[in-house]
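Q: Can I see a sequence and its folded structure?
A: Here is a first one.
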Amino acid sequence: MNTKTLEQVLTENPGLTPNGWRYWCMNLSDFKAWREETASEEFKAQFEAAKALLETATPIKTPSAHSYSLKHLLEIHAGRYISNGATIAAALALGLTIRRDAFHESPNCLIGVSKRNVKHWRDTQHEARQRRMEGCK
């Protein structure tokens, strides 16, 4: 699979922030501040963690996984915070299909990963939490 770097994704998608996509009612100063956060080491680490998990997913043409819900599942399995924007950027880097709402009213989008993968991540989230807790002992 030919993947893109975070820098390539951000250059090709200037409306992407850690919060997700810039949407029509987002304050310009908030957008600029959030956009600057995409250069941080923290955002890069979130991107890499999301990408590592999304690489294991089966891509599908018709996006159906909600980015914000997916971000929460990826966080559980990665054992770290992952932003909505890092999830979207990782999906774009991997060439997964993305669909935004028609009027750009939301920072979220749909991502083309198999429902079977999403179900597996949901079904195994308890075990992922348990492994993390055992590591804290």
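Q: Show me another, different protein.
A: A second, unrelated one:
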Amino acid sequence: MKKEETKTKNESTVSTSVKRQPDETCCRGQSIEEFALPGVTDLSHLANFFKILGDRTRLKILMLLEKEELCVHTIAKLLNSEQSVVSHQLKTLKNARIVSSRRAGKHVFYRLCDDHIASILDTASEHTHELK
């Protein structure tokens, strides 16, 4: 083991840390392949998915759509937001295949693409409630 000391300008010791060599109890010589992590492209898609979910307005929209299919006008009214803002967020969600839409006359109705999205929202909500 090698000790390292951190010194301030007046050369007094602030803290001491110890560098440890890996041992059998923590590092068993594993390779990254053993963990079956997704490839770079899949990780990029997954990171982008969570980035999209990281917006409060989009989360509110998704939570509304988890209950039922709604049109842009109704979503905007429920969120007390401008219809253009909601439309922009819905476009982002639709491009990410998180929501889908259908046209009925002059109205466009949105819904979650599948049950996976609702499940992710429920699990995340459950987790955050446990943190309280």
